[in-house]
Amino acid sequence: MFERPLVSVILPNYNHAAYLQERLDSILNQTYRNFELIILDDASTDQSLEIFEKYRDHEKVTQFLVNEINTGSPFVQWKKGLELARGEIIWIAESDDRCESNFLETQVQQLEGAGISVAKTLKFNQEGIQGGIQHPVFKENASIMGNEQILFCPVLNVSAIVFRAPALEEIARSQFSTFQLIGDRVFYFEFFQHESVIDNKETTAYFRKETSGLSNLKEKDLDYLTRYFEEHVRFIRLAAKKEKGALDQKVNPYIHRFFKRVRNRVSRKRKLSLDYFRLYCCYQSELIKTKILS
């Protein structure tokens, strides 16, 4: 018989008032009813709090927290939600996305045979559905999040997944919230590496793509691109240490991949700057460091 464990739904928000009602409706109208809703607002300056106030005393809302100062990172809010969650299962429902009403029902069922369940995902915006998303974890028909996928962020939208709640000790040790730009990639590695993963086609998550987000590098300045590269270097070092040698042969290809991604987005004129020269030197020194360590 299908058990109905408590699901903790973490709703982090910053200035998404335009989408909040749709997001809240898609959560509160779930056919699966054994869930709590944790509302976390990161000091929004739009009308978000006016919308949230209507739900402060809702029977499903167990936490209603508003930051006085913006953290500047959604990943800090993710971690706060994980620490507050009481459920056996977690769903981080980002505030500008939506989903089908059977999302939790089917996702929780799928977790009986996996550590993480990923729903079918469609991109959408104010003009409608913009096509489907293939999450990289499934590119090779994988059923495990393994080291061979380290070059890619395995899941492109956290709202599409549910997973078993990590232990508080594991949450406390995690470092994903210290990454401002690629915290999601680190999050998936820290909590789901070597876990079984299910491709759930029985429900749909809708991933809003109105404007460029953290992952869109096309118009970022060199300072941003430098931080982006440095975070990737830090991540692959962290991952290699945790995997105790299993990733050693992938460290330099990883570093090269993300330096190339940055290099291809820097103008010819900017490449003549001292800042870019420093970045290039950093890249070369990291390649040398890997050879020395190995």
UniProtKB/TrEMBL annotation:
Q: Which UniProt keywords apply?
A: Transferase
Q: Keyword Protein biosynthesis: yes or no? A: no
Domain Glycosyltransferase 2-like: residue ranges: 8-132
| Transferase as UniProt keyword | yes
The protein's GO terms of the molecular function aspect are: transferase activity
Q: Which domain of life is it from?
A: Bacteria
Give one Pfam family.
Answer: Glycos_transf_2
Q: Which PANTHER family match?
A: GLYCOSYLTRANSFERASE, GLYCOSYLTRANSFERASE 2-LIKE DOMAIN-CONTAINING PROTEIN
The entry's protein name is Glycosyl transferase family 2
Q: What is the organism of origin for this protein?
A: Salinimicrobium sediminis
Species lineage? Bacteria, Pseudomonadati, Bacteroidota, Flavobacteriia, Flavobacteriales
